[in-house]
């Protein structure tokens, strides 16, 4: 680039690559038509994402990496809170029973069954989230649907 002239897009790209070399990362670029970019960028903003983060999520999903959506995260948090409450209830019932063994154990049985159900719900959700093959199939189906 000569002195006093404006940098070209190629000069800018080279300067950016030289500045942002981070160990363990690979920069991937893509060329989009203006309408494609505007549509993509608009949709990313609707989800509160930058263009870079939206592309990274798409690439990670296609590769089978773990991306947990907000609904699954909220469901998991609710199940974990339920398990914590049930655990406290069972401990309190066990303590009460230890003090007075003549108490009916039906409440304890009901809490234990609810505890088991919450663990089963959590297990099912985690299996679904952590299934690498399912995530890869989901990501690949996104690609197939795009064509």
Descriptive key words:
147 residues; mainly alpha; 73% helix
Explain the overall architecture:
This protein has 6 helices and no strands. It is mainly alpha-helical and 147 residues long. Helix 4 packs antiparallel against helix 5 (106-130). It starts with 8 loop residues before the first helix and ends with a helix.
Low-confidence parts: none
> Can you write the helix and strand succession as a string?
HHHHHH
Structural class: mainly alpha
In what range is the share of β-strand residues?
under 5%
Q: Whole-number radius of gyration?
A: 26 Å
Principal-axis shape: elongated
Return the average pLDDT rounded to an integer.
76
Main sheet specs: none
Count of strand segments: 0
**Number of helical regions:** 6
Give the % helix.
over 70%
| Span between termini | 40 Å
Write the layout of secondary structure elements.
Layout: H1 9-19, H2 34-46, H3 51-63, H4 70-99, H5 106-130, H6 132-146
Helix pairs in contact: 3-6, 4-5
Summed up:
With 147 residues, this protein is mainly α. It is built from 6 helices and no strands. It is elongated.
